[in-house]
Design a protein that fits this description.
heterodimer; A: 376 residues; alpha/beta; pyruvate-formate lyase- activating enzyme; Arc Repressor Mutant, subunit A; 3-stranded antiparallel beta sheet; 15 strands; 22% strand; B: 598 residues; alpha+beta; Rossmann fold; Elongation Factor Tu (Ef-tu), domain 3; Alpha-Beta Plaits; 8-stranded antiparallel beta sheet; 6-stranded mixed beta sheet; 13 helices; 24% helix; Coproporphyrinogen-III_oxidase (chain A); HemW-like (chain A); heme (chain A); Elp3/MiaA/NifB-like_rSAM (chain A)
Chain lengths: 376, 598
């Protein structure tokens, strides 16, 4: 069971915090889509023995694609890959692209899941982050999406400078009022080389505050727990049966094929990534050359990745799995290193599973690093 | 003997000594192209990177001049104040010296003190004005400076550029014509000066010497006068780029000796080599046992590595006799060693060599000088305090003495005010002020050595915009009002961070130490109070706020690889931290007090 990720590297405008690969000039959109279709053909051998369970359009802003473009990509997948009978096909979308008509039409396509980049229902927040939509569009898009789609996810951002807890609670409540079955929620993160970083360095925007982010994260957990959401990954919450199948695959070490500029792939022992440049990508694919770099993972690399991703999820890190896949030394090391964090109530053992406590969740990177093994 | 010339080079760091040495080797055909490597004489990696010569070396060149064949022995000298004793022994082995002065920067304090040493030893000085090709060169003015200083004629100063090769032939001619040949009597009993030694892991210690009288022969039974040890001269020879074994090295010449000595401390620079059966009655004057000036604790980051650290230090000591250490233990850091160094640079070099050559990650504690403490019970009996924790309780303390130095600083007249306030800030007392030229001033201060240890060089450079040079020599112990400032992390005293500080500066420095540690210690899962205390009295406090968020919000297909590498890097960084109580302290925090003004 595997997934295909399609990266659409275009946006109408740049959100200040974003460090993903995209271009705000849509001139090469046709050529990129053409190349994506071709890359799908070129790489079919990599998934010879795999069944495709999920297809995910991410970006960038995939809702900039025309229906025809979406169809041609999905059809190509069906033509060259073995697709399961009930695949999850997600489109990331921005509210400003989601008119009622568009949503209706999308619901007739093979797309069966919408992930909408709402982020906030307050104009101040949206302006501060340079989002392309306004609060009104945000609400309208969810209403329409819920009418035509069974499976809708909403993205929310917390820890926004100047955003009070009161405003954050309002954002959560508004989201819940639409009855969406899935929410992804992220702390605003200042990435290097972003506009947000520059503004903060210059003092134009106040810096993010970890204390505020931590408190708003806790507020989120409390509200979503009451609303019957399952906190299945650090930033992801779903109703029973509505977890993102595509994203869960990343955290469970399943293989995936990343198509398009900057997309990453994983086949169980190698990670590879396409070049982060639209023109080079287009030209290279034209010449039947995949412009990508490959990294082969050692046993310890895979162990470290399992720890890192496992601690973020409801499935935790299985000690038995560590022993089976990586060996006894890794298992003993893991248990030895974990003890300190168990004593400090940051981790706990449930059967053979190592999980983060409520207190440990927001510190899980540091804990993971401590459980890492280093290659000599 | 009249065809031998022994000379050294006196120069300030960066004034081009090593490059000039390379040029001389080139011009005399001492190096084949294959052997050419920038700055040949500095053969430790560390030396090449830092651009300073740590250990002195010697090399012999052949040169034909006016139809006659000459042997030129160049004795290289280290250019840092930490190694000034070695410089003095190299100078004692020569009859002449090239005084290299940068045509842009003129004469520096280090150069002057070495020049005085050379003049005391009656060396013939050949002034060379180097880097005259630089656009910033100021040859006329700097020549005047040199003429003032040496009382020579302007024509005696040789303009040169080691970079372009200008003046090299003139320098070689001057070496032969101006420097006198060595004197000495081959028929007298052997009398040779040890001016350096180098540790060779395969052949043992190589001793470099200059024969003053008599000769040294292969398989001769010889004796080192200061240590009293006798050895068989297994091999003697001259130093080219490679060693050339000979049967005999005669009076006036320079050579190397191999006796199978395994430990560098058996060979003391300044010692006299003589014949064991027919010893000379005259040991060469000026021998000193080099004493460490700066002390610090060295501890393994991982307590389990203590034995490995011991064996690494023992190996280091084999080739660095000036390193001394004794075991000590710290409540905070466990078992380690209290080490004595010639100076701060020497300390840094040892730390780096431990990491590079032995892969030992160590923690170096706050360095200090050696104090004398006297108790009220026993007011005449000095207790030597090489570690702040050894200072007796204030109630039983009669007085403390600390080592003083005489500092010589040469600077541009414009910066005299700045330099003076810095030195006074560092508890210096001015003893002399001399205008060497209308533009250049020499200032002398009596200062506590401890103040030099703590960020003095860097601040001197800052306040003089780089135009001050500095040299010092010890002048004995003086009584001082010292207190011990302790640092508490999470209410627990960390003995490795304690420092002895003059009472007047204690509050100020305590406060700065807390601030610096707050900057250097990473946030942990709980608040960490940092306090500075004198005895039971808290004089300053800072708090490192608890870490609230240590996770990235997103971790999807494209993030995993990058994120893993980031966390691996973080983990590597943590390996260099030391857990004290429940606080993790990074290696560099222990040296924080040295860099309070950064």
């Amino acid at each position: 069971m595997s997934g295909i990720y399609i990266h659409i590297p275009f946006c109408k405008q740049a959100c200040y915090y974003c460090d993903f690969h995209f271009s705000t000039s849509l001139k090469k959109k046709d050529l990129v889509v053409e190349a994506i279709v071709k890359e799908l053909k070129m790489r079919q051998a990599e998934f010879k023995n795999e069944r495709v369970e999920t297809i995910y359009f991410g970006g960038g802003t995939p809702s900039l694609l025309s229906f025809h473009e979406i169809d041609s990509i999905i059809n190509t997948v069906y033509k060259f890959y073995k697709v399961n009978t009930n695949p999850e096909i997600t489109l990331e979308a921005n509210p400003d692209d989601l008119s009622k008509e568009k949503i209706k039409k999308l619901s007739k396509s093979a797309i069966n899941r919408l992930s909408i980049g709402i982020q906030s229902f307050f104009e101040e927040d949206l302006k501060l982050m340079n989002r392309a939509h306004n609060a009104k569009e945000a609400k309208a898009s969810i209403t329409a999406a819920m009418k035509h789609f069974n499976n809708v996810s909403v993205d929310l951002i917390y820890g926004i400078p100047g955003a009070s807890h009161k405003r954050w609670i309002k954002n959560i409540e508004t989201t819940l009022s639409f009855n969406v079955p899935h929410i992804s929620s992220y702390a605003l993160t200042v990435e290097p080389k972003t506009a947000l970083k520059k503004f903060i360095d210059k003092g134009v925007i106040e810096n993010v505050d970890d204390e505020q982010a931590q408190q708003q994260f806790q507020i989120l957990l409390e509200h979503l727990e009451v609303a019957d959401f399952i906190h299945y990954e650090l930033s992801n919450f779903g109703k029973e049966g509505f977890f993102s199948r595509n994203n869960s695959a990343y955290w469970q070490g399943k293989s995936y094929l990343g198509i398009g500029p900057s997309a990453h792939s994983f086949n169980g022992h190698e990670r590879s990534w396409n070049i982060r440049n639209n023109s080079i990508y287009i030209n290279s694919i034209k010449n039947e050359i995949l412009p990508s770099e490959v990294e082969t993972l050692t046993v310890t690399d895979r162990y470290n990745e399992y720890i890192m991703t496992g601690l973020r999820t409801i499935w935790g890190v299985s000690v038995d799995k560590v022993e089976m896949e990586f060996g006894k030394t890794h298992k003993n090391y893991l248990l030895k290193q974990a003890q300190k964090h168990i004593n400090e109530h940051l981790l706990y053992l449930d059967d053979d599973k190592l999980l983060t406590t409520k207190k440990g969740k927001f510190l899980s990177d540091g804990i993971a690093a401590d459980l890492f093994l280093l290659n000599l | 003997m009249k065809h031998i010339r022994n000379f050294c080079i006196i120069a300030h760091i960066d004034h081009g000594k090593s490059t000039l040495a390379d040029r001389l080797l080139d011009a005399t055909g001492s190096v084949t192209d294959r052997e050419k490597q920038e700055q040949l004489l500095d053969n430790m990696d560390l030396e090449r990177e830092r651009g300073i010569t740590i250990k002195s070396h010697a090399i012999q060149m052949d040169y034909e001049y006016k139809g006659e064949q000459y042997v030129l022995n160049l004795i290289d000298t280290p250019g840092h104040v930490d190694f000034s004793y070695e410089v003095s022994r190299s100078i004692a082995a020569c009859e002449g010296a090239l005084l290299i002065v940068d045509a842009a920067q003129s004469i520096q304090a280090q150069t002057i003190s070495n020049l005085y040493l050379a003049l005391e030893n009656d060396l013939e000085i050949i002034p060379v004005l180097n880097k005259v090709d630089l656009p910033s060169a100021n040859p006329e003015e700097v020549t005047d400076d040199i003429v003032d200083l040496l009382g020579c004629k302007p024509e005696d100063v040789i303009p040169a550029s080691a970079k372009t090769g200008l003046g090299i032939d003139e320098i070689l001619a001057a070496i032969i014509e101006r420097i006198p040949p060595p004197t000495g009597n081959v028929d007298e009993p052997l009398q040779a000066l040890i001016f350096d030694s180098v540790y060779n892991p395969f052949r043992g210690v190589e001793t470099y010497f200059r024969v003053l009288n008599g000769s040294i022969k292969k398989n001769q039974l010889i004796k080192f006068i200061a240590t009293g040890n006798t050895y068989n001269a297994d091999e003697v020879g001259t130093l080219r780029l490679k060693q050339f074994p000979r049967t005999e090295i005669k009076a006036g010449d320079v050579g190397y000796l191999i006796t199978g000595i395994k430990e560098a401390k058996e060979v003391k620079v300044g010692d006299t080599i003589t014949d064991a059966k027919n010893p000379t009655q005259n040991a060469i004057a000026g021998f000193e046992d080099v004493k460490p000036m700066v002390f610090a604790g060295i501890y393994p980051v991982d307590t389990e590595d203590y034995e490995e650290l011991r064996s690494s230090m023992e190996k280091l000591q084999l080739n660095d006799a000036s390193l001394v250490f004794v075991p000590e233990s710290s409540a905070a850091l466990g078992f380690g060693f209290r080490c004595g160094f010639l100076g701060m640079l020497h300390m840094e070099i040892i730390q780096e060599r431990l990491e590079r050559e032995f892969d030992m990650t160590v923690i170096t504690t706050v360095p200090n000088v050696s104090y004398h403490a006297y108790t009220t019970k026993n007011p005449d009996q000095a207790i030597i305090v090489n570690n702040p924790t050894d200072l007796p309780e204030p109630s039983s303390l009669n007085r403390v003495e600390e080592p003083y130095i005489k500092a010589s600083i040469i600077t541009k007249a414009d910066f005299v005010g700045n330099v003076m306030s810095l030195c006074i800030d560092k508890r210096g007392q001015i003893t002399n002020q001399t205008y060497l030229t209308p533009e250049r001033v020499e200032l002398n201060f009596d200062m506590p050595l401890a103040e030099i240890v703590f960020d003095f060089y860097d601040r001197l450079k800052t306040v003089s915009k780089g135009y001050a040079s500095f040299d010092y020599s010890p002048i004995g112990m003086r009584a001082s009002k010292l207190v011990r400032v302790d640092i508490l992390l999470n209410a627990q005293t960390v003995d490795a961070l304690s420092a002895l500080i003059h009472a007047d500066n204690a509050y100020h420095i305590g406060k700065k130490m807390c601030e610096k540690l707050k900057e250097l210690i990473p946030r942990q899962q709980f608040d960490i109070p940092i306090q500075a205390a004198i005895g039971a009295k808290i004089i300053s406090r800072e708090t490192i706020k608890a870490l609230r968020k240590d996770v990235t919000a997103k971790c999807y297909g494209g993030d995993i690889s990058r994120k893993r590498k980031l966390l691996e890097k973080q983990k590597k960084g943590k390996k260099r931290m030391r857990q004290v109580g429940n606080v993790e302290i990074p290696q560099q925090a222990f040296m924080a007090v040295l860099k309070l003004n950064d």
